[in-house]
Structures are given as structure tokens and as C-alpha cells.
Amino acid sequence: MLEINKCHQTSGRSYFTIAKLGLVASAVLAATASPLVAAQELSEEKPMYVPPSEPNEFLDGRVQVNFLAMQNYQAIQAKDGAFRPEDETQSDGFGRLRVNLMFKFKITDNITADIDIAEEPNDFGNNGDRDFSFHQDFAGIEFDLFGLTKYEKENASLILRVGNIGASPFQFKGFQDGADNQGNALIGNGITDYATAENGIQLSYSESFDSGVLRAYNVAGHMTTSSFGEAFQEDRGYNYRLQGTLEFAGGFKAGLNFFKANQGDQLVFNDGVASLDGVTTTNYRFGDGENYNFSASASSERDTHVGALPGLNQSIMQLNLAYQPSDQSSLILMLGKASDDYTFADTQGNAVAGITYFGAEGVLDPAGTTFDSNQVIEADSSVEYWVVEAQQYIIEDTFYVAARYAEAENTSNLIEQTDNEVTRLQVSAGYWINDRTLWKVEYVDQDEGVNSGGQIGAGFDGITSEISVKF
Fold it and tell me: CATH number, domain at 306?
């Protein structure tokens, strides 16, 4: 449930063009977007098929609509030693169809509103396979402050957004959210994609230049509550983000992100242990849902990410570097550290490497069954990680190959610093059947050390595929 800035914002450049650009973050897109194509008069006869270079516009250009659908297939198995043995022998098969319906409304020349309505089981599947319902996945109102105040500055914008705010420390690469997958060269998100959407406000300033070494920059900051719903309980804090992006001539880009949350004051300790019952944690402690699913998990489970951080007084710092000389090739490097003032624990207060662990009657036991921790203790937890991602079109605008390698190390103070890494390799190919239909195939291999905070237990591997359409 997220934009990056949800990758859902609409410009005169179509969603397909955004997909071709692949791994470019929304802040840079905003700085380079062309003006909206003028809407046809209502009296004119409009064709059923709208070219990808134009948005689907109605009511004399005041409403834009996009429909997205995606079907996936997977043949994936958990490796020997999984927390839940039934995951080690799964059947291959098809997942549930994911559907998004996106609207953007031009209220005035300087005020727009947007809403993404989604049937997305990996976000809203907590009611099992019975919950076939559309939900508000992302929505907000944006105010062009320069336009509203009649202040004119060439090639610059100052935008205030209220409502759902997309939050992630990564930039320049694509993100997968339900059926909105064509901007992601691979399948699924990363093991440390601490990304989601929450309620709050965001202020973003962008400026571009016609010449010189620096071609564009963006600075954005936001404040949100740690909930996609509503959370007003005592001592519930806020989440803060500060993000900066630079784009240079020749396709070089750099971005730096800081996140900080203060949710720990909600905890009530008893003999040094606090329960998470009734506590609002940061939604980005794991990241958004992925399209890898396991037999023993609910369809909305986020158990393929690193699950080392409770998400209370969480902080993230991440550096992003990219070289994207054209829309046909991209190379991205991400370096980051996420930390918290609290560590997951069993019912007796013993620190555990992640939310999922072996135990007997809730107490840490390598020979026991499987538990999800609902307790924390005061102790520093942290994850240090790096990610490299590349995409290259072999046939221009038609066929590409892509790869992503990620490595995350659980560096928490009370966790044994051996066998404490999660790694994931993804190798993918994508074929544009036409300018609205993308077919992707991927091989994924994840390894999880005993002390890594991995939530499957030993990792998983297999083949997955997706076919998606955008209208």
C-alpha cells in the first residue's frame, strides 16, 4: 500500500512510459515529466483505445482513470529446516488475481485528489481466501502551493500532500504493489524494502535545470501516524522522513533518506518484558507485501522480509546511487542501516533473532515448534544491508533481463554474530507482448542464517511468473 511516491502519481507521461523507465523514483519523474496532453472536447468522438502516450481522461480532462490487473504463478519451495515443515513441499500453482483501479481528480488548476482502490490479497488477506473485497489502498489530496499563492518560479514546484503518504528509504528502482507491477523490472520487493503508506502530511520541493551538471533535485519531508487506519491511543508517536535527491547530467543520480519513529512510549514493562498487544508499530518495519506465498502463511503475511526489528523507535538511514543513461538500461546501488531500541523476545524475556523463532510453549528452544514473538525487551536491534540491481533491454522497448542481489546482516546487540545473514538473488526476464501487457519470469533464491531474522527458517527458491495489463 504505497506510492513511492507510490509510483501512482499521474503525469502527462503514461503509466507505460513510467514502466519503461523502470527503476526511476517518483521524485525524479516529477522533475522531468512533460505537461499533460490536452483533453479532447466531450463533443468529439473518442476511440475505445487510448494510446499509451495519453492518459484516459474524462469530463473534459478533469478525471483520469487507470485499470490494472495481474495474474501470477509460482513453483517455490522452502529449504530444509524451515520453521514450518509444510512449506518445504508445496504445490506449484496460480495465485489470486490482483486488481487496482486508480482515479485522479483535478479539483482546480492547483488542487488534485487521487485514490487507488485495490483487491490485493497480500495486503488485505487477513480474512483468509474469503476476503475478496476492494479497499482504499492509497489516497490523498495535493496542493500546488506556488500556484495557490500565485508565486511563479520557472521549472519548480512546491507540493503539499495530505492523506496517505508513501514512505520508503529506497529510490530510483521500481516497487510492486498488487497489480501495479510494471514499474518493477523483477518480481516482488526486496528483503529490506522498508516501505508502506501511512496517514499524515508531506511537503515536497522540486526544481529542474535546462543545462549544467546538476539537472534536477528534490527535497521532501513528512510526518505520519503509524497506522493505515486510525490510532489515537496514549503515547502513540509519529514517524518522520527527510529525503533528498540529485539528478546529474549523463544519467547519474544520488539520494539520501532518513527515517525516525517514536512509538516506544506505548510499551508497559513487567519484569523487563513488554507485550505488543494494542501497540501501534511502524508499518515499514517489514515492508509492503510480496507475491511469494507459502502454505503455512496467511496470504497477507510478510514473512519473506527480514523480521529483526519490532518497529517502535525505529530509525533508517539509506544511501541510493544510480546510473541510468537511458530508459533501456539501469544500475542501482543501495546501502543502509535500520535499527530499533527494542528487540523481539520470547515469553521469558530471552532475546530472539526475529519475530519468527523456534520454541516450546513460547520459550526459545531450537528443537521446539514455531512461534511469532509478541514480546520485546529493551535492547538495541539493527540490520545492515546493501542491494545492487541492474536492468538491460536486449530488444529495445520489448525484451529485457534484470537481476537483483541483496544481503542483510542482523547486527543486533543480543544476537549471536555468526550465521546472521539473509541473502537473496533474483534473476528475471520481461517481455512486452504489447505496450500495455508485460510478462515476467523470475528465478529467486533466498538463504537465511539461524541468527539472521529470516522468517521462513532457512530460505526458499523456485520459479515465479506474472502477466499484467494496464489500461
Answer: 2.40.160.10
Which residues, in sequence order, are bridge partners of residue 167?
196
CA distances (Å), origin 439, targets 170, 185, 453, 464, 469: 25, 11, 32, 11, 9
User: How far does the chain reach from its first CA to its final CA, in angstroms?
Assistant: 20
Exposed e or buried b per residue across 458-468, where buried means at least 16 C-beta atoms within 10 angstroms of its C-beta: bbbbbebbbbb
The answer to whether residue 57 is domain-embedded is yes
- The per-type count for the chain, helices as H runs and strands as E runs, is 4, 23
Domain-embedded: residue 462: yes
Q: How far apart are CA 471 and CA 56, in angstroms?
A: 8
DSSP string covering 232-293, please? --TT--EEEEEEEEEEETTSEEEEEEEEEE--GGG--EETTEEE-TT----GGGT-S--S--
Q: ∠399-437-470 over CA atoms, to 5°?
A: 135
Q: Tell me the pTM.
A: 0.85
Residues making up the chain, counted from first to last = 471
Give the tens place of pLDDT for each residue, 279-299: 989 888 887 777 788 888 776
Split at pLDDT 50, 70, 90, the class of 5 is very low
Residue with cell 529467486: 444
Quick one: DSSP state of residue 351?
A: B
| Spatial distance between the Cα atoms of 91 and 242, rounded to a whole number of angstroms | 44
Whether 209 has a pLDDT exceeding 80, the answer reads yes
CA 256/CA 70 separation, integer angstroms:
32
Structural domain of 390: 15-470
CB 8 within 8 A of CB 138: yes
Following DSSP, what letter does each residue of 383-402 receive, concatenated?
Answer: EEEEEEEEEEEEETTTEEEE
Total count of domains within the chain: 1
pLDDT at 141 over 80: yes
Q: What is the largest CA-CA distance in the chain?
A: 73
In a domain, 341, yes or no: yes
Kindly state the helix (H) or strand (E) to which residue 124 belongs, with its residue range: helix 121-124
Each residue of 38-60: pLDDT tens digit? 333 333 444 445 666 677 888 88
CB 70 within 8 A of CB 122: no
